[in-house]
Amino acid sequence: MSSRVEKTAITPSTHTAPPAKFSHGVRKGNILQVAGQVGFLPAVEGQAPTPAGPTLREQTLQTFANVKAILEEGGASWDDVMMMRVYLTDTDHFAEMNAIYNECFSGLKAVPAARTTVYVGLPKGLLIEIDALAVLG
Q: What is the pLDDT of residue 18?
């Protein structure tokens, strides 16, 4: 007899349904994968998603808030994150993003997550996207 662990979709109240057939987060057993998040403000019924602002700082802070909302909805925290991937649209933003990243995680008690940063194209006006993989105790 098989005891398969089912996958559970994670969608916090701050998020709208994804625009395609994917989940904002998926948990299976003690593994939680957060899909790529961008700096959209919390969802407002009937309104199109709106970026937090035009600056890298505004979008990065909102992106972290969006990732955190999914982690928490899935029963995880930043301390559970093993891997983060950061996608930037402009190589000139790397140093500023690193400074914001270090600010955000300066109080972390656990070993910092591994991280990869790559440069990509994102929809017009979006500067950063982040995904995360968490393993819960």
A: 79
